[in-house]
């Protein structure tokens, strides 16, 4: 598929990904895991992982073993960690490929160890501590006894211990420091007992920037890899660059007379003779079915009018009379002097930038700028 033939597509700037990984290396002064779960936050898992490793990332983080297997089958060469739960019936795939997995319950650990023993290959594990997220993990008080017990099993290599923050993107709150204190206690006791694993890690993107003591041996950066801000209260330094541009084209441009309805249910009626454009972007592409959307045409911001359809939506083009069929329309990214950020779109949709990036449909092709 050629961009010239596309009516709707994403352009992913891998130079921005490489820049962002270099920024993370410089800031953290430790090892960097590029978190590329969920198809690289919608940017493309393999392409992002390859660029991240080129720039110096030594790990990639995934949510599920299926994702890690796909990445392992590519030419990307780095350590892989599955941060979610892996079904024991699937674990031989991780063992055979030396994919690291998270461990946080006895029953799974026992089943993993049995499979590793049967295969005669050790499984690399990272023990997850729940220091306050209330999601996956062993409570801090039980962390050290659990790790001692894991050492009695044959077949497991305890390579890491980690935790995850619930509110690192709200640096004015005490929550992250409290979580860090609980996690540090576990790490200290492990150190004193000679049980400290090689890889201690805790920081997501926000914590990497706002909590230097959370950096340990490795940081796990998702949203910052893509140049997206963790939150309004935890902005990235302006040396980071967003990597995603979302484009479509005008597929029709025509004047509608005054009083003419636009799109399903006629939620928009022209108030005078108006120039209305159609574009090939709809809710089935991940462009949400809400009023109040906007786009750039010839560098000018124009409103989406009427209901967003499955494959199309309409633009009010009175401010760009030169618009014609085939012209590029930008939904996210720069055009001329204006830029629509993912954060702005998230605000309009009542959600967060993470949700916008991961929300684009599989049918939208991705093109990569090396
Ligand atoms: C998704 C995820 C991350 C990355 O978080 P960002 O806020 O995108 O940096 C890190 N660690 C875990 C366990 C995750 O699930």
Secondary structure layout:
Elements: E1 8-13, H1 14-28, E2 31-35, H2 37-41, H3 45-54, E3 59-62, H4 65-72, E4 79-82, H5 91-97, E5 100-103, H6 106-119, E6 123-129, H7 140-151, E7 156-163, H8 175-192, E8 199-201, H9 205-210, E9 218-221, E10 244-256, E11 261-262, E12 268-269, E13 274-279, E14 294-297, E15 300-305, E16 313-316, E17 328-335, E18 338-340, H10 342-349, H11 353-357, E19 366-369
Parallel strand pairs: 1-19, 2-3, 2-9, 3-4, 4-5, 5-6, 6-7, 7-8
Antiparallel strand pairs: 1-10, 10-13, 10-17, 11-12, 13-16, 14-15, 14-17, 15-16, 17-18
Helix pairs in contact: 1-3, 5-6, 7-8
The structure holds pyridoxal-5'-phosphate (PLP).
Number of helices: 11
- The run of helices and strands is EHEHHEHEHEHEHEHEHEEEEEEEEEEHHE
| Termini separation | 17 Å
- Indicate the mean pLDDT: 98
Biggest sheet architecture: 8 strands, parallel
Proportion of beta-strand residues: 25-35%
**Unreliable residue stretches:** none
Structure ligands: pyridoxal-5'-phosphate
How much helix, percentage-wise, in residues?
A: 25-40%
User: What is the count of β-strands?
Assistant: 19
Q: What is the molecular shape?
A: elongated
Report the structural category: alpha/beta
Question: Going across the major beta sheet, what is the strand order?
Answer: 8-7-6-5-4-3-2-9
**What is the C-alpha radius of gyration, as a whole number of Å?**
24 Å
Outline the structure in words.
This protein has 370 residues and is α/β, with parallel strands linked by helices. The protein is built from eleven helices and 19 strands. The strands form three sheets. It has an eight-stranded parallel β-sheet. A six-stranded antiparallel β-barrel has the order 10-13-16-15-14-17. A hairpin with a 2-residue loop joins strand 14 and strand 15. Helix 5 packs across helix 6 and helix 7 packs parallel to helix 8. The radius of gyration is 24 Å and the shape is elongated. The relative contact order is 0.14. It binds pyridoxal-5'-phosphate.
């Amino acid at each position: 598929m050629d961009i010239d033939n596309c009516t709707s597509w994403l352009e992913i700037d891998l130079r921005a990904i490489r820049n962002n990984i270099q920024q993370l290396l410089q800031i953290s002064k430790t090892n960097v895991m590029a978190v590329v779960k969920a198809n690289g936050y919608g940017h493309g898992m393999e392409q992002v992982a390859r660029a991240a490793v080129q720039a110096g990332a030594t790990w990639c983080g995934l949510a599920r073993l299926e994702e890690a297997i796909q990445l392992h089958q590519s030419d990307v060469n780095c350590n892989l960690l599955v941060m979610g739960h892996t079904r024991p019936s699937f674990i031989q795939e991780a063992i055979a490929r030396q994919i690291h997995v998270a461990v946080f319950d006895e029953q799974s650990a026992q089943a993993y160890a049995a499979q590793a023993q049967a295969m005669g290959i050790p499984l690399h594990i990272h023990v997850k501590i729940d220091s306050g997220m209330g999601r996956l993990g062993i409570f801090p008080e039980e962390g050290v006894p659990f790790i001692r017990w894991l050492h009695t099993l044959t077949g497991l290599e305890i390579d890491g211990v980690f935790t995850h923050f619930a509110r690192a993107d709200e640096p004015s709150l005490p929550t992250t420091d409290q979580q860090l204190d609980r996690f540090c206690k576990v790490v200290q006791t492990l150190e004193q007992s000679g049980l400290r694993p090689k890889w201690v890690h805790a920081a997501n993107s926000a914590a990497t920037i706002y909590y230097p003591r959370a950096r340990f041996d490795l940081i796990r950066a998702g949203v910052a890899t893509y140049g997206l801000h963790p939150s309004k209260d935890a902005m990235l330094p302006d040396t980071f660059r967003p990597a995603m541009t979302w484009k479509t084209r005008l597929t029709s441009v025509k004047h509608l007379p005054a009083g003419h309805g636009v799109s399903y249910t006629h939620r928009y009626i022209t108030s005078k003779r108006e120039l209305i454009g159609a574009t090939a972007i709809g809710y089935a592409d991940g462009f949400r079915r809400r009023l109040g959307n906007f786009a750039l045409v010839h560098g000018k911001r124009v409103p989406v009018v009427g209901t967003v359809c499955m494959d199309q939506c309409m633009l009010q083009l009175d401010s760009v009379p030169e618009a014609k069929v085939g012209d590029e329309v930008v939904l996210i990214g720069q055009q001329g002097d204006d830029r629509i950020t993912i954060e702005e779109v998230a605000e309009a949709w009542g959600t967060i930038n993470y949700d916008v990036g991961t929300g684009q449909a599989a049918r939208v092709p991705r093109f990569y700028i090396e």
